[in-house]
Write a sequence for this structure.
């Protein structure tokens, strides 16, 4: 499983699905499950804390320019990039990159657009992993204000039938397999064949 670090300031933005992009020097692979984590202390000298499972759907090249007057110009990022990057406003984003890109330099970077996937394991099942593609679940359950998109157990307990009918519940022998299937189903949107909601809920209650 690929793992990528995340600055702690962005954890809430990722979990609330307001941060859906990240800018890095090296591109992340498209369509591959990636686990985001934070360091509990000093990087590479402390334990890792898992944050979320994501899948990149698009990679594009951008250029971050730190102009001589101190302004930050990001070429190719598109409008309102600060929102998908998890910043309060444009100045908050500019202040961040001033601390990254040296003055009067221009850095080519990769912008990844990613989507979050919830997973759960029940080891007693023959297909122990279940996954749900969060952006699609949000669209299907848009009118339900109490839907919990951070906990797959709560989400399935309340809306299993709707998610199953929408073809958004995927299974797998491994977590990676379930995530790949959930991501693929979100694009092709076939009718779910799954185990049915009763068996799914038993799965969540028997761990």
């Amino acid at each position: 499983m690929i793992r990528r670090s995340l600055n702690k300031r962005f954890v809430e933005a990722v979990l609330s699905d307001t941060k859906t992009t990240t800018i890095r020097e090296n591109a992340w692979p498209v369509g591959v499950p990636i686990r985001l984590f934070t360091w509990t202390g000093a990087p590479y000298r402390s334990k890792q804390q898992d944050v979320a499972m994501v899948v990149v759907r698009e990679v594009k090249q951008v250029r971050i320019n730190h102009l001589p007057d101190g302004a930050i110009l990001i070429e190719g990022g598109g409008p309102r990039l600060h929102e998908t990057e998890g910043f309060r406003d444009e100045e908050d984003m500019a202040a961040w990159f001033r601390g990254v890109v040296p003055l009067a330099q221009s850095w080519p970077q990769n912008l990844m657009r990613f989507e979050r996937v919830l997973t759960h394991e029940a080891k007693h099942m023959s297909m122990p992993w279940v996954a749900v593609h969060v952006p699609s679940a949000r669209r299907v359950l848009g009118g339900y204000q109490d839907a919990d998109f951070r906990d797959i157990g709560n989400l399935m307990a309340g809306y299993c039938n709707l998610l199953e009918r929408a073809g958004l519940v995927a299974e797998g022998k491994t977590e990676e397999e379930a995530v790949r299937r959930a991501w693929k189903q979100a694009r092709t949107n076939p009718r779910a064949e799954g185990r049915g909601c009763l068996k799914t809920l038993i799965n969540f209650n028997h761990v």
